[in-house]
């Protein structure tokens, strides 16, 4: 007993201090000290004398981008040396990895396996704390229906149910079992709210979203993050129905605090308090600060209007002390929850290091599960490992940045496995010829001849096409969704060489693939698969692993169809070939090229025997058989959708309400069970109250969002 106690005491850091009584602390604070807690400063990685001075004067409560144990400790020492010694909180965008980069969040959503996102977030948190960080600005849980918006890469796609499952997984992963443990980060659900509905897919653009659509489509992943205990939210850049999200009392206070009881704090987005001026809501710095803080934005990121304006707003009586106190209380509460009062310092013996074998394996496994086989005519894939010559063609084939994508944390392109490197490693005995063919952008076809010659010389071809790493993410909206530059022409020239050719796509958003999709026999959507991306692609192309991901977002045929998403309303005139006066186009089909939930596998799984029966407490048990009728082991994602033919408000043609990813051996059959409870069956009725309406529900099971099986469920009053 004594030995254990002695060991524990020895392990406890020397600076451990007790967690203070936060109310007592708040009472001691001057107005200036309170405002300091509400101000976050953006900083260079290595810190700066200016930041040290701010920390030493208690003018900031948090920083972003500063990292490295020694650097953050220097700032922390300055903060702890102030009169009240309140620790700083160091934040950074750890989005899909810190040093080891996992697939982008859109790709992690394509796993349809929240455990993968959770494991990725857990490992990322463990890496980030080594550099003194305790807060990540993730997960981004914005629902997005417009692939022009570059930030679709950062979210889980178009569906609120899948998005909610992913949101919960990230929060669990980043925050761990206890956010106070030294390997956890505070998570941040962003961007509250509606940011993904940016008009015309242009980043930062205006949004107009009805309250019902907010509640049904855009809110649920945020609520899911909150239910999982997320400690912070970030207010968005967008104008939402005339009141910018960073000054929107309806979303920030009425819903988030009032209805949902959120106890953590809200940080603004970068300069989004100051941006209330160009939005046309505030006529000056003082109004901007008053409107943001008054609406419920507790901490200001980067712009410094809270520092400069809040003291005088309070003194003039334009802002209540109680509003400032409440914001400070929330910030202190999160710092306490993170254990910062007890353990404010990072361990300087530690630092972010190159991914080790275990981290690489985790990244590779995640990447394998995120790959979506869009097309595989004639079973072209998997390719045989006994081929003698493989041609790898395309401008992205040996591009380390393209496999990492946007928001790469401390990741290094040089540490990433490109597709070319992955293929070379997988085929040690073969000759691998490589030709870029063309650049990602630009108009030159000068490299086509060499690429075609390479294709002709080979037994098989892997064509690696898509978007450069920085063509998606923030401020990376595109007005066209085609393959950029001359890549489509390159693909046509290479395909005309007539060799067995698989296309691998690296991209952060759905692309319009008309012209390619018809001609290429096999297409593997690899997204931006992270540090081990190339190894994962090689494993799937050569059958060491099977593809089993599914699209978390619709791939349109053509830009003019956008926004195109599976859970749309039926309209009064649903599209019909035989009736001209129906909801469709003269010059394009209404259907997508690849629908939400689509993805092929090396297995061949058939569903049958869908049943629905009454369960406990207003719940229904749904079951369906999944059987692998193919000759190879492989994955399938069984998907459950519901639909109501009539209700008090119109419903969507299909709504995802369950999913399960399975691996089945040849001939293996498994019964998959789901529960449909009030949470799945309810919706916001005419009075906006969430309730289950009695009546007939159609329950559908399938392997994509056009499910083949259907059963009736009658819900009685
Ligand atoms: C982005 C946020 C990000 C923040 C800090 C902003 O521009 O919109 O998502 O967390 O910068 O880097």
Please tell me about this protein's structure:
There is one protein chain. The chain has 717 residues and is α/β, with parallel strands linked by helices. It folds into three domains: 3-9 and 40-304, TIM Barrel (Alpha-Beta Barrel); 363-561, Glycoside hydrolase family 3 C-terminal domain (Rossmann fold, 3-Layer(aba) Sandwich); 605-715, Immunoglobulin-like (Sandwich). 29% of the residues lie in helices and 18% in strands. The strands form seven sheets. The chain has a six-stranded mixed beta sheet, sandwiched between helices. Strand 17 and strand 18 form a beta hairpin. The longest helix is centred in the middle third of the chain and has 17 residues, at 321-337. Mean pLDDT is 96; it is low at 1-15. Beta-D-glucopyranose binds at residues 64, 93, 137, 190, 269-270, 474.
């Amino acid at each position: 007993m004594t030995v254990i106690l002695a060991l524990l005491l020895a392990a406890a850091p020397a600076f451990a201090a007790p967690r203070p009584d936060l109310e007592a602390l708040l009472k001691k604070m001057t107005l200036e000290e309170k405002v300091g807690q509400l101000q976050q400063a953006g900083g260079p990685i290595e810190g700066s004398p200016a930041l040290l001075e701010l920390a030493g004067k208690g003018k900031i409560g948090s920083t972003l981008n500063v990292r490295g144990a020694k650097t953050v400790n220097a700032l922390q020492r300055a903060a702890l040396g102030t009169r009240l010694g309140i620790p700083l909180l160091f934040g950074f965008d750890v989005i899909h990895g810190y040093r080891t980069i996992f697939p982008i969040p859109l790709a992690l959503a394509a796993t349809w396996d929240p455990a993968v996102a959770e494991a990725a977030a857990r490992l990322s948190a463990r890496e980030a704390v080594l550099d003194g960080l305790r807060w990540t600005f993730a997960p981004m849980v914005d629902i997005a229906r417009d692939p022009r918006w570059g930030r679709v890469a950062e979210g889980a796609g178009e569906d609120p149910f899948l998005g909610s499952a992913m949101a919960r997984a990230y929060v669990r992963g980043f925050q761990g079992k206890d956010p106070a443990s030294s390997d956890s980060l505070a998570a941040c659900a962003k961007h509250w709210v509606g940011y993904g509905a940016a008009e015309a897919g242009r980043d930062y653009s205006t949004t107009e979203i009805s309250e019902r659509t907010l509640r049904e489509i855009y809110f649920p992943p945020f609520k899911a993050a909150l239910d999982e205990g997320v400690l912070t939210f970030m207010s968005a850049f967008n104008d939402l129905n005339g009141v910018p999200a960073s000054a929107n009392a309806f979303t920030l206070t009425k819903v988030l605090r009032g209805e949902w009881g959120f106890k953590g704090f809200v940080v603004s987005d970068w300069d989004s308090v100051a941006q209330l001026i160009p939005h046309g809501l505030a006529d000056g710095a003082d109004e901007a600060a008053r409107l943001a803080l008054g609406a419920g934005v507790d901490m200001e990121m980067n712009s410094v209007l809270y520092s400069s304006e809040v003291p005088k707003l309070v003194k003039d009586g334009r802002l209540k002390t109680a509003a400032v106190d409440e914001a400070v209380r929330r910030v202190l509460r999160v710092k306490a929850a993170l254990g910062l009062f007890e353990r404010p310092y990072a361990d300087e013996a530690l630092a972010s290091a190159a991914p080790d074998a275990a981290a690489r394996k985790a990244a590779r496994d995640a990447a394998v599960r995120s790959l979506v086989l869009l097309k595989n005519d004639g079973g072209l894939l998997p390719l045989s490992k006994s081929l003698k010559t493989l041609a790898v063609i395309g401008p992205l084939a040996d591009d380390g940045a393209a496999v990492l994508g946007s928001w790469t944390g401390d990741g290094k392109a040089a540490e990433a496995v490109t597709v070319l490197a992955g293929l070379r490693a997988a085929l040690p005995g073969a000759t691998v010829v490589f030709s870029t063919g063309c650049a990602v952008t630009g108009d030159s076809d000068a490299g086509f001849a060499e690429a075609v010659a390479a294709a002709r010389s080979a037994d098989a071809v892997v064509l690696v096409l898509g978007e450069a790493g920085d063509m998606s993410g923030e401020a990376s909206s595109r007005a066209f969704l085609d393959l950029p530059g001359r890549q489509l022409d390159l693909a046509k020239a290479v395909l005309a060489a007539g060799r067995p050719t698989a296309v691998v796509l690296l991209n952060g958003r759905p692309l319009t693939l008309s012209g390619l999709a018809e001609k290429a026999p096999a297409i593997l959507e690899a997204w931006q698969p992270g540090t081990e991306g190339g190894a994962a692609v090689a494993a799937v192309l050569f059958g060491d692993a099977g593809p089993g991901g599914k699209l978390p977002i619709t791939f349109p045929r053509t830009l003019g169809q956008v926004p195109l998403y599976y859970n749309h309303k039926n309209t009064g005139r649903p599209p019909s070939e035989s009736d001209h006066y129906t909801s469709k186009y003269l010059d394009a089909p209404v259907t997508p090229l690849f629908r939400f939930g689509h993805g092929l596998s090396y297995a061949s799984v058939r569903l049958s025997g869908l049943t629905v029966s009454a369960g406990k407490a207003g719940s229904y048990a749904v079951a369906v058989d999944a059987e692998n009728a193919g000759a190879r082991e492989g994955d399938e994602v069984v998907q459950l959708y519901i639909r109501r033919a009539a209700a008090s408000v119109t419903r969507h043609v299909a709504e995802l309400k369950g999913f399960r990813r399975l691996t089945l051996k040849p001939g293996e059959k498994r019964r998959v069970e789901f529960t449909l409870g009030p949470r799945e069956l309810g919706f916001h009725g005419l009075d906006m109250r969430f309730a289950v309406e009695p009546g007939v529900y159609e329950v559908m099971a399938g392997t994509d969002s056009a499910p083949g099986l259907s059963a009736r469920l009658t819900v009685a009053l």
